[in-house]
Amino acid sequence: MKQRNRFLKKYPYYDSSLPIEQRIDLLLMRLTLKEKFKLLSGRVFSWWKSSSIYRLKIPSLNMSDGPHGISFHSSFRLMTKFPCSKCLSASWNPHLASNVGAAIAEEAKAIGKQLLLAPGMNIDRTPLNGRTFEYFSEDPFLTKEFAVAYVKGVQSRGVGATIKHFIANNQETNRFTVNVQVDVRTLHEIYLRAFRDVVREADPLVVMGSYNKVNGIYACENKELLQETLFNLWGFKGFVVSDWYATKFLKRPEQAIQAGLSLEMPKAIVYTLKRLKKAFKEGLFSREELDAVVRRFLRVLFRVGLFDEKPRKSFRVKVNSPVHQELAQHVAEEGMVLLKNEGNFLPLNINHIKSVGIFGPFSSKKMGKFLYGGSAAVVPPFEISPKKGIINKVKEHVKIVKKPAEADCCLVFVGISHAKGGDCENFDRPGLSLPKQQNDLILEVVEQNPQTVVVLINGSPITMEPWLEKVPAVLEAWHPGMMGGNAIANVLFGVVNPSGKLPITFPKRLEDSPAHTSPRSYPGSDSVFYEEGIYVGYRHFDKKSIAPLFPFGFGLSYSKFSYKDLLLSSSEIAGSQELDVVVEVTNDSPVAGAEIVQLYVKDDEASIDRPVKELRGFKKVFLNPYETATVNMTLGSSDLEFFDAENFTWRTEPGSFTIFVGPSSRVLPLEGKFEFR
Ligand code: BGC
């Protein structure tokens, strides 16, 4: 007791009975100017840690890359490799994002990390973006639902989440310098909206500033975006960290401080002691401004327990626990999207099929390698490849044959690797099609055996023109994580009924895609111009009446579902009133399965141009054979609003709105109308 008192006398901010803000005050007043400067950048030669201060017992904040698991490059450990974020969001089951976030945080905690550098939540503007596989969707609402769940899951385990990359980091080409020219409405309505909602609904501890410029100013020193929007408008309480080396081109420390950048990673470039001292001496920033960014940083240290008197016990979970591996498999199973299934070719019947041919470069390709694909890479202790998964499943019943013609059924595994030009950070893809050898391989196999299923291993849209009409079935398996092979086998053989739907449009041709109207709009050079405005993803395909290859929200099932009886709780709402939307969904088949019911809203009479429709609700429902479920969704006035750039505010205009409900963005059998007053 005496010892404790002595300790707390010296380090009173370690007293966890005091409110956090008071503890920060106690610490701030003890810090010298030089110590404050030191806290603003990463620890020398560490790459993943913030600076520590021995004198005051301020420990380092220890970070790790995500979002698909704890990366090898930030931990030197083999960890659970979860399916990629696109697979996660294709499940349309945010509950899974919360479980994945919690599981990754448990693994982070078990190895002494307090901050996860995930989730990535940029909007898919172009399908060529090399990091598409790391992001959730082209739609802000779907993105928000997943990011909120993910962040809550991570933080439920006492680990901080970092939402990234703030903001308009929508391409990898010239990512370090490109100047994104985007209008205010588009910025708020499309690119910022999900970040805003996550800040408000999930209270993430950290926001990562992106490399690029936004309307002429680098994101990490952009006062309008950080100070004015993130802090003042949205009430963000955590701190902003730079993306790694995103400060390379910043010249003035005062500008970054005044914008609100608390931590420069991985080391001091703009926040060197020399630069900071000089700027402070010249009066370019004030002590209050400095304290404000340091306070934000310290707040997070307190919140993750770094000043707890007794360090919080790490969860008694082993990394790579069977529970986490099972979760990884479950996500892969729920995220897979059945794109084509002519004549109910799938599922394969293990009792009827005597021989299977397994082909394609992705049938046994190792996907979890050191930095393979960039910072989202995770190296698992083992990987169940598709081939291994199929063999595990069928070994006693089915012979694996080498020649397509000798097989009852052929499975071709093709996709996009994590090498440069594939699903990979720092580069965009050169085009939408698969490598020619892969297209040729499919054609060759299907020529010898029309009973051929194509299974796709990728994290971003591809075109399928050469072979789509020739094969009876196509399964989008994404990058399915360390247990992917088992998940794929379960779906192909009907142990699991596929229930994923596309969180991103698959265009027929690149030119159909919104960002690809001119070299100015993509890839740009010094600047890239977001000329399509708010018409990103399905909003663009709808507006221009372009038929995509596969639309947003599309996915098949082994069950058949029907929709009826759309009911609205009222014919009008006003102010903060909510509208209940109720619909009956039936499984008309003898196979249990899950359907994703989607709700879109259209503003019938608006003073400005608005999308044909926007996703504003969805529910995934599990239905037994011939079962009917009543599905409830709710709409409020915020679901009807647009960003009024002239008055710099969100606004809902009175008038009539149409509601559409159905199984995909392009099949919406039910319609209803209501008035907003
Ligand atoms: C990526 C971030 C990542 C960081 C640390 C950057 O290149 O853009 O997403 O968290 O590196 O690895």
Question: How would you portray this structure in words?
Answer:
- The protein has about 675 residues and is of the alpha/beta class.
- It folds into three domains: about 1-305, Glycoside hydrolase, family 3, N-terminal domain (TIM Barrel, Alpha-Beta Barrel), CATH 3.20.20.300; about 320-545, 3-Layer(aba) Sandwich (Rossmann fold); about 560-675, Immunoglobulins (Immunoglobulin-like).
- The chain has 16 helices and 26 strands.
- The N and C termini lie far apart (about 65 Å).
- Beta-D-glucopyranose binds near residues 65, 164 and 244.
Main beta-sheet strand count, sense and barrel state: 6 strands, parallel
Bound ligands, each once: beta-D-glucopyranose
Structural class call reads alpha/beta
- Terminal Cα separation, in Å? 64 Å
Q: Assign the CATH topology of the largest domain.
A: TIM Barrel
Which descriptor suits the 3D outline?
Answer: globular
Overall average residue pLDDT: 97
What is the CATH class name of the largest domain? Alpha Beta
Low-pLDDT stretches are none
At the fourth level of CATH, the homologous superfamily of the largest domain is Glycoside hydrolase, family 3, N-terminal domain
Fraction of residues in β-strands: 15-25%
Q: Give, in spatial order, the strands making up the sheet with the most strands.
A: 1-2-3-5-8-9
Rg from C-alpha positions? 26 Å
Number of separate domains? 3
Q: Helix count? A: 16
Annotation, overall tally of beta strands: 26
* Second rung of CATH, namely the architecture of the largest domain: Alpha-Beta Barrel
What is the helix fraction of residues, given as a range? Answer: 25-40%
